[in-house]
Q: What sequence folds into this?
């Protein structure tokens, strides 16, 4: 047992049962916005580099960050005690992993820690934690493609998450692979949403099927499917209007769009991508649940990972709802779309 | 989520039964739930930590109000601290003494700036102002067009150039134009940008230098998670924000980002967006936001109501009466009046944490009509009758029924109920405590 088991056991029992205020911080009044602001700015604005370079750098720093901190802990001869676990807890919570998933992850470490060599277990534990995260995330899942005919991808989500941009980027990707792509402007609601998609269509070199603003999104989907059959397109990507998952009639509208697609092209939609903003917090779980129930979401596109948000909420979504992340958005450009890489994601989760 | 928290709080309240001063244990137990609630509501980890520390400091050793349980007392402190931290109701625009007043809307991509610009224009127009919209988002495809469409919808002119133009120049042109045509407010929509994008943050800083805005409002999505502190902190450092607008509050997000952004910037939340329509911009209510974040609005309103209706002196007297077996119809009527002050019984019962656990009380249906009848009957009795119900014979019953507009059966049943209550109170024992508990929990038989 030794220090290790006792410390961890105690910690896990007290998990979320105490506040972690260190003495020096407690004397600081919470209204002191400067203290927080200074903290928040600690990571500092990064130099204006290409987004990809920036992302790569961040991923590289990842390892330093965590290992560095672990070494610092070991260097100070700190055992796997409360402080160590509180640090892990802080990292996970601040990555939007959420209270429940964080508790589950840390609880999973308890048994490990109890059996670990005293003093030498920190690295083992970190690695184990990453493995747990990887296990939660599941393997890489590429986008599905039908062997014959048009593959239909529906893109859905709440307002402003990056649906239209993702549709444009995806269209560009498929075009570059030599496919024929049709974009369907089923967001007939938001002002200028159709024009926005048309600009993306132009950039990507994809045809855009559109109606007038205020038109029927299902009818647009129908026309897009017809056009795909007539023009022998390989892909149909449907942009839909942003909608809060709590709006029942708008979710019904989305179901209708799905039904139209199902009817027009057997086996379609092949993918229903829920676009989630990496900056979003725990509400994303409710979003994912409701969208899944409504239109059978098959995967997540996690956007805006080029910011400082970690998008940790996808862990809970994967675990509770079984929806894998398939794509990540890392910028506003045509090429800023990547396949999801669980290992990179797990590393970045622990980076500061 | 909500059920979870209520259930957990019930558990906490049940455990915390002591009276007197709040012990550290009381406080910690309740604060544990509060901490989880805040984190689940997406309040930033560090903001939660500071907040909990502050509440603990304030709560420990505090006198527990007679009307509340220790758990409720802690929640009350939490709520008042939270409301305070949320700031006042400052849903006002700071106008420049030298019109036009310039308002810049800034924020991350997709937070809702363009829609909010139109909503704000609409609101100010209704308040008698003459706003002008400026499309300085020259980056996002069709952002200009979006603002133009919305501007038309709200009947406000939009100054715009072409996509790709210099955003700062457009902003300057917009302000100049407003001055030229006599518009008193200029609302500038800017492109969404990451707080770590130096180049684009510089652009905003330059814009601010050029157009000298009275307001620089950060538009924050209510669904934002932990990163809200980084975003709001950096925008504030770089631009000196004057306030915050919280969008997409019409969903079910608990909106902890509001607290994070407020705590890190110290700036007031001025408006909230509650829908996609151009009218859906509302003033900010710190108290409502506090209970939304806590996810325990009903518990809080119960605490308030219990406090308002509770009369310490009366409770002591009542306890004394129970102890000496002197609980009369008069006290009974008194109780009724207290309860009517608190509100409809159904509501009260549903609000009381832990009540569900007491002998299946949760299944009981409250009959408001009957409650009124009972009150009328007791009011029709003479003082003597209320003090000594034994004297109420057949003819008195008839008179009371006539006086209260009820039937003799009704009078009979009230008398029976009174006896039941009296017996129940006796059984409670522990006099004072029981009386308090009974008062608090509405332990009366106007439920069936
Ligand atoms: N930094 C960054 N910005 C992004 C990313 N994806 C999208 N955006 C930006 O986010 C904003 C909103 O994107 P849209 O594609 O219009 O989002 P949407 O979900 O279609 O919005 P609605 O249709 O209005 O609900 C735009 O300014 C995009 O440029 C990303 O991966 N990183
Ligand atoms: Mg869109």
A:
């Amino acid at each position: 047992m030794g220090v290790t088991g006792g410390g961890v056991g105690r910690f896990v029992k007290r998990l979320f049962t105490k506040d972690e205020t260190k003495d020096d911080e407690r004397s600081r009044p919470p209204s002191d916005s400067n203290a927080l602001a200074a903290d928040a700015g600690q990571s500092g604005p990064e130099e204006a580099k290409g987004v990809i370079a920036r992302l790569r750098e961040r991923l590289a720093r990842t390892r330093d960050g965590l290992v560095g901190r672990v070494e610092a802990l070991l260097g100070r001869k700190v055992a796997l005690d409360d402080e160590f676990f509180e640090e892990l807890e802080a990292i996970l919570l601040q990555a939007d992993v959420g209270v429940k998933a964080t508790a589950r992850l840390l609880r999973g470490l308890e048994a490990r820690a109890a059996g670990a060599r005293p003093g030498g277990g920190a690295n083992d534990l970190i690695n184990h934690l990453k493995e747990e995260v990887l296990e939660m995330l599941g393997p890489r899942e590429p986008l599905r493609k039908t062997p014959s005919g048009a593959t239909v991808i529906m893109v859905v989500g709440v307002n402003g998450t990056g649906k239209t941009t993702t549709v444009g980027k995806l269209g560009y990707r498929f075009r570059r692979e030599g496919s024929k792509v049709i974009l369907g402007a089923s967001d007939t609601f938001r002002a200028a949403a159709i024009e926005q998609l048309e600009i993306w269509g132009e950039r990507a070199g994809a045809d855009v099927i559109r109606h007038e603003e205020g038109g029927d999104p299902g009818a647009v989907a129908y026309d897009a499917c017809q056009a795909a059959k007539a023009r022998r397109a390989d892909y149909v990507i449907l942009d839909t209007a942003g909608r809060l998952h709590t709006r029942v009639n708008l979710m019904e509208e989305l179901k209708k769009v799905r039904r139209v697609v199902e009817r027009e092209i057997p086996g379609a939609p092949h993918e229903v991508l829920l676009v989630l903003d990496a900056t979003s917090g725990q509400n994303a779980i409710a979003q994912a649940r409701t969208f899944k129930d409504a239109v059978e979401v098959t995967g997540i596109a996690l956007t805006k990972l080029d910011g400082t948000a970690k998008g940790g909420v996808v862990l809970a979504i994967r675990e509770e709802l079984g929806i894998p992340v398939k794509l990540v958005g890392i910028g506003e450009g045509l090429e800023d779309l990547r396949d999801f890489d669980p290992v990179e994601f797990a590393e970045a989760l622990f980076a500061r | 989520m909500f059920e979870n928290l209520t259930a957990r709080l019930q558990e906490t309240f049940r455990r915390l039964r002591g009276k007197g001063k709040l012990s550290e244990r009381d406080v910690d137990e309740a604060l544990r739930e509060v901490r989880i609630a805040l984190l689940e509501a997406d309040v930033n980890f560090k903001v939660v930590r500071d907040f909990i520390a502050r509440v603990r400091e304030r709560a420990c050793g505090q006198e527990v109000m007679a009307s509340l349980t220790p758990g409720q007392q802690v929640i009350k402190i939490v709520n008042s601290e939270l409301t305070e931290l949320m700031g006042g109701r400052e849903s006002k625009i700071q106008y420049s003494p030298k019109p036009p007043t310039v308002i810049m809307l800034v924020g991350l991509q997709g937070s809702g700036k363009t829609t909010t610009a139109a909503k704000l224009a609409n609101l100010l127009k209704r308040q008698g102002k003459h706003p002008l919209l400026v499309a300085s988002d020259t980056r996002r495809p069709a952002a200009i067009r979006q603002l133009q469409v919305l501007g038309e919808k709200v009947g406000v002119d939009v100054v715009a150039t072409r996509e790709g133009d210099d955003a700062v120049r457009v902003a300057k042109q917009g302000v100049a134009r407003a001055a030229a045509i006599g518009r008193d407010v200029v609302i500038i929509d800017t492109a969404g940008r990451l707080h770590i994008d130096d180049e684009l943050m510089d652009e905003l800083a330059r814009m601010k230098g050029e157009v000298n805005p009275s307001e620089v409002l950060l538009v924050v999505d209510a669904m934002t998670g932990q990163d809200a502190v980084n975003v709001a902190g950096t925008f504030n450092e770089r631009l000196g924000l004057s306030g915050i607008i919280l969008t997409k509050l019409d969903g079910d997000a608990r909106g902890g980002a509001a607290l994070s952004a407020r705590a890190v910037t110290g700036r007031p939340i001025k408006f909230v967006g509650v829908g996609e329509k151009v009218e859906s911009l509302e003033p900010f209510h710190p108290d409502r936001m506090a209970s939304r974040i806590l996810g325990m609005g009903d518990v809080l309103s119960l605490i308030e109501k219990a406090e308002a209706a509770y009369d310490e002196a009366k409770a002591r007297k009542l306890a004394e009466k129970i102890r000496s077996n002197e609980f009369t119809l008069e006290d009974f009527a008194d109780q009724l009046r207290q309860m009517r002050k608190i509100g409809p019984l159904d509501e009260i019962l549903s609000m009381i944490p832990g009540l569900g656990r007491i002998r299946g009380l949760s299944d009981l249906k409250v009959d408001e009509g009957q409650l009124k009848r009972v009150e009328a009957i007791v009011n029709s009795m003479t003082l003597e009758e209320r003090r000594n119900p034994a004297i109420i014979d057949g003819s008195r019953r008839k008179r009371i029924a006539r006086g209260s507009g009820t039937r003799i059966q009704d009078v009979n049943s009230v008398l029976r109920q009174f006896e039941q209550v009296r017996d129940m109170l006796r059984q409670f024992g522990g006099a004072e405590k029981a009386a308090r508990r009974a008062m608090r929990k509405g332990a009366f038989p106007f439920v069936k």
Observations:
- Residues A 163-164, 187, 193, 239, 242 surround magnesium ion (ligand 2) (CB under 6 Å).
- The first strand of chain B starts at residue 101 and ends at 106.
- The CA atoms of residues 67 and 307 of chain B lie 6 Å apart.
